[in-house]
Amino acid sequence: MTRTRYDHDRAGIAALLAGEPGYRVEQVWEGLHRQDRDPAEITTLPTALRARLEDTLVPGLREVSRVVADGGATTKWLWELHDGARIETVLMHYPDRATVCVSTQAGCAMACSFCATGQAGFDRQLGVGEIVEQVVRARRAAARRVSNVVFMGMGEPLANFDAVWAAVRRIHDDLGIGARHLTLSTVGLVPGIRRLAAEDLPVSLAVSLHAADDALRDRLVPVNRRYPLAELMDGCRDYVARTGRRLSFEWAMISGVNDRFEDAERLAALARPLRAHVNLIPLNPTPGYAVIGSSAKRVRAFRHALVRHGVTTTIRDTRGADVAAACGQLRGNA
Ligand code: SAH
């Protein structure tokens, strides 16, 4: 596999710098991870060394296009990888902070019916460097401090566990973003949830539930046939018991499909014992799914029903919907 700029760990950088004074390793490492610089911009290095590193430490992402939406608050990048595969990254500004949404795979094999990435199928896994570089590149462009990273772009993070976890470590240890500000979102791969529970960084976990009965969830999230709700809830229960970490459920609001009163009651029955927080996502339109999102009124009523049952619930704002940069719309057809 081609090693790109952020695939190198400290030992890898040290090997590239053989023959140079030892302190160069730290200068390069800090330049790449703290200052978000290209090697050519690390001005503490001699010019010839900068040029050599610029050639050796090749970037993993080439910008194909960049779209700005929501009056400048949202930016979506389409990147091309060294082998031509394409992925997307989204940067969202809030009044006091910024969040980067990263992809973990080129495409996705989970085939959720309402998700554009799922409709397009799977290309390949991303390497650690390709994941970390998305954060660095977005941070370079951000007008505010990047405080949060959400693994909610293209792909299923827990189906690429090793690379994703190595990226989490690097984003935490070297890019300096706190563990509670890192959120992994999963379709519900139970073995991955169990592995995550054994890791030492208390990152946040979001489970894309979308349905609280197996018949409906089988249709919306096909992996439910492999890990049905009872098994998934077992995994979630163990996760919460073992880690004491916060768990949230994602629920895309689909008109007439999962926004009925009985859906809210079933969801509340799953969420309450786990003290899970529910995030309602208004469904974003995608080409391969004909059903529309619930009305704003219906979303509010659903939220109200959950709150009455003692479940804390927020309605996620839809960023970048007008430029197909919202949840489930990432697909990279420039
Ligand atoms: N594979 C992971 C992370 C990527 S998707 C997962 O499934 O959690 C991030 C979130 O966006 C998931 O909750 C996903 O179900 C949701 N999503 C996908 N398509 C959507 C759409 N069209 N509208 C709203 N949310 C969508």
Task: Write a brief caption for the model.
The protein has helices spanning 10-16, 23-33, 47-56, 116-120, 128-141, 161-173, 190-198, 214-220, 229-243, 261-274, 296-308; strands at residues 62-69, 74-80, 86-94, 97-101, 105-107, 122-125, 146-151, 182-186, 204-208, 247-253, 277-282, 313-315. It is α/β, with parallel strands linked by helices and 334 residues long. The strands form 2 sheets. Strands 1-2-3-4-7-8-9-10-11-12 form a 10-stranded mixed β-sheet, with helices on one face. The chain has a two-stranded antiparallel sheet with strand order 5-6.
Give a structural overview.
By secondary structure, the chain is of the alpha/beta class. The chain folds into two domains: 5-56, DNA polymerase, domain 1 (Orthogonal Bundle); 62-323, Aldolase class I (TIM Barrel), CATH 3.20.20.70. 35% of the residues lie in helices and 20% in strands. The protein is built from eleven helices and twelve strands. A ten-stranded mixed β-sheet has the order 1-2-3-4-7-8-9-10-11-12, covered by helices on one side. A hairpin with a 2-residue loop joins strand 3 (86-94) and strand 4 (97-101). It is elongated. S-adenosyl-L-homocysteine binds at residues 110, 112, 114-115, 152, 156, 185-187, 208, 250, 252, 281, 283-284, 286, 327-328. Residues 110, 112, 114-115, 152, 156, 185-187, 208, 250, 252, 281, 283-284, 286, 327-328 line the site of S-adenosyl-L-homocysteine.
Assign a percent range to the helix content: 25-40%
Strand content: 15-25%
Question: Which sequence of strands runs across the widest sheet?
Answer: 1-2-3-4-7-8-9-10-11-12
What would you call the quaternary organization? Answer: single chain
CATH topology of the largest domain: TIM Barrel
The CATH architecture of the largest domain comes to Alpha-Beta Barrel
CATH class of the largest domain: Alpha Beta
Strand segment tally: 12
Count, helices: 11
Instruction: Report the CATH superfamily of the largest domain.
Output: Aldolase class I
SSE run: HHHEEEEEHEHEHEHEHHEHEHE
- How many domains make up the 3D coordinates? 2
Q: What structural category do the secondary elements indicate?
A: alpha/beta
Q: Biggest sheet, in brief? A: 10 strands, mixed
Provide the list of bound ligands, each named once. S-adenosyl-L-homocysteine
Head-to-tail CA distance between termini: 26 Å
Cα Rg: 21 Å
Shape: elongated
pLDDT average, as an integer? 94
